[in-house]
From TrEMBL:
UniProt GO molecular function: GTP binding; GTPase activity
Alphabetical UniProt keywords: Cytoplasm, GTP-binding, Nucleotide-binding
UniProt protein name: Ribosome biogenesis GTPase A
Native organism taxonomy: Bacteria, Thermotogati, Thermotogota, Thermotogae, Petrotogales
Ribonucleoprotein recorded as keyword: no
C-alpha cells in the first residue's frame, strides 16, 4: 500500500491543528461517496462540525448520490453537491460553504481534507488564484499543511491527501483506483478493471454496450480485448492488445469519460457508522 512517511507526519499535524479550527470541510468523490472518505474520520474528527462536499457531481449517478446526501444529513453532516471544476472556487466557498461554518473570535476557520484526486488541491489552488502546488491524477502530490485566506474573515487550513494505512476491503481498493485516488500496481489494475466490468455490466449495462458495441465478450478479459481492437490496439495475429486496452479503459474510467457512474451502493454501507 502506498503510504509514505510524510503522510503519517501530516496526519499527526492534522490532529494537532483540529483544536484551532471551527469546522471540517471534507471533499469526497461523488462516484464513491463512502469509499473516497479514506480518512480515519471517526477517530480524527470526533466532536467537530463537519461539512461534506460531494464533488464531481457531473459524472456521478445523481439518483444514487441523492440517497447518500440523505443518509449523511441524517447522520448530522452538512452536505453540498457540486462539480468544482465548473464553479468559481472562491465564490463557491464564500456563498455555499462559509455560511455553514460557525463564527468564533470574529473569524470562520476550517480544515479541508480529502483523499487524493477528489479535487481538493485544485479547489485550494483556485481560491489562491495561482498554481502554487502541483495538482493532477497522481495521488499524494500536496505534501504540506498551510493556511489559505479566502477573504471575508475566512481561513482554510489545507492538508495533504491521506488514505487509510490499510484498506480492509478489496472492492474499496478497486473503487479508489477507478476514481484515481490510489495508484494501482499491476495486479491491482487488473482487479480494478475486472471489478469495473462486472459492476458496469450489472448496474449500467447500456454503458458496456456503448463502450464496445457488441456482445462477443464473455467476461472482463474478452471485453478488454474487444475494447483494444476498437481502439486499434492490435497485436500480431489481429488480437487486441490487452495491456494497452486495460490501461486506456482504466484511465478513461478515472476521467469520467463514459457518463454518470457511482460505484458505492448505499445498501452496502448504511449499517456502518459513517
Amino acid at each position: 500500500m502506498w503510504y509514505p512517511g510524510h503522510i503519517n507526519k501530516a496526519k499527526n499535524a492534522i490532529k494537532k491543528n483540529l483544536k484551532i479550527v471551527n469546522s471540517i470541510i471534507e471533499i469526497v468523490d461523488a462516484r464513491a461517496p463512502y469509499s473516497s472518505r479514506a480518512y480515519e474520520f471517526e477517530k480524527l474528527f470526533q466532536g467537530k462540525d463537519k461539512i461534506i462536499i460531494l464533488n464531481k457531481a457531473d459524472i456521478c449517478d445523481l439518483e444514487k448520490t441523492k440517497k447518500w446526501e440523505e443518509l449523511y444529513k441524517k447522520r448530522g453532516y452538512k452536505v453540498i453537491k457540486t462539480s468544482l471544476k465548473d464553479v468559481n472556487a472562491r465564490n463557491f466557498l464564500i456563498k455555499n460553504v462559509a455560511p455553514l461554518i460557525p463564527v468564533k473570535f470574529n473569524e470562520k476557520t476550517a480544515i479541508i481534507v480529502g483523499a487524493p484526486n477528489v479535487g481538493k488541491s485544485t479547489f485550494i489552488n483556485s481560491i489562491k488564484g495561482k498554481k502554487s502546488t502541483n495538482t493532477g491524477n497522481m495521488p499524494g502530490i500536496t505534501r504540506g499543511i498551510q493556511w489559505v485566506s479566502a477573504g471575508n474573515n475566512i481561513r482554510i487550513l489545507d492538508t495533504p491527501g491521506i488514505l487509510f494505512p490499510e484498506l480492509y476491503n478489496k472492492s474499496i481498493t478497486s473503487k479508489l483506483i477507478l476514481i484515481g485516488s490510489l495508484k494501482a500496481e499491476d495486479d491491482e489494475a487488473d482487479e480494478a478493471v475486472f471489478y469495473a466490468y462486472e459492476y458496469l455490466k450489472n448496474n449500467y449495462p447500456k454503458l458496456i454496450k456503448k463502450i464496445v458495441d457488441n456482445d462477443l465478450h464473455k467476461g472482463a478479459y474478452e471485453f478488454i480485448l474487444e475494447f483494444a481492437k476498437k481502439r486499434n490496439f492490435i497485436k500480431k495475429g489481429g488480437i487486441g492488445d490487452y495491456e494497452r486496452g486495460k490501461m486506456t479503459f482504466l484511465k478513461e474510467l478515472i476521467d469520467g469519460k463514459y457518463g454518470k457512474i457511482t460505484y458505492d451502493d448505499i445498501e452496502e454501507f448504511e449499517e456502518i457508522k459513517i
